[in-house]
């Protein structure tokens, strides 16, 4: 009877291991993903979702995704449900989640919260900061080398975006005679207003546009193709969207960052506080050059980027 009982216990243990967190013996259990928008925007939200799927594949954990979460109350409702389902690492994909997490984190001391581009942190809150100035700067330099009309447009979500400032200064440092026309949507996703602003920029005789917003950059790139002008991709490498139109993309490799954050947490090495990611050719970089970029300009850009990576200097 004793032998039979031992056999049953061993078999039960084996089944629990096989059906649960198979070989994951680290801190990570399951992962929650909260978005203030959607996973279908082809840039910011989609990158987060693909990153979460990579975590699921690599760590063999469950992923719970909730879209259009915009308030602290909605955040707490979702976090409460996620905790019930075994989540202990929660991503909030946007800056507003810093405030939402700060309102509730003490209620959930066993959870770790990660969000993006904010300055709020606590013992169990980490902010991931994308320093976008340099990627915008290099895209601006490239645009200045390609433009023929010396009129370049930007459709930004907000005026304060560091990649927009970088783009503007990259253009001006390359050729101060180029005019840069900036229009701001004041929203990440308002496609209708963004298209109106883009049509307004076309009247300025622009031949390159940088649509720096999650919900409207793809539609503007496709319209730029129809108008026979060039565009700069945003967040993801958007060369394939229109190879003859996209000159390059300002890439933030969200998928890779998500996986690395989860691995750090699993190994007990994810710090609280604010973690900065800058232009490093690993997480933040320029995407593939488009068909309209000459070999000479490609060489000049590669040399500029290589010098920056070696010295930290953007200008000569």
UniProtKB/TrEMBL annotation:
Subcellular location: Cell membrane
Signal listed as a keyword: yes
Keyword Ion transport belongs to the record: no
Topology in membrane: Lipid-anchor
InterPro entries per record: BMP_lipoprotein, Peripla_BP_I, PnrA-like
This protein's UniProt keywords: Cell membrane, Lipoprotein, Membrane, Signal
Residues spanning the signal sequence: 1-24
UniProt superkingdom: Bacteria
ABC transporter substrate-binding protein PnrA-like domain mapped to chain residues: 30-313
Stored Pfam families: Bmp (PF02608)
Family (UniProt): Belongs to the BMP lipoprotein family.
Protein name: BMP family ABC transporter substrate-binding protein
Source lineage: Bacteria, Bacillati, Bacillota, Bacilli, Bacillales
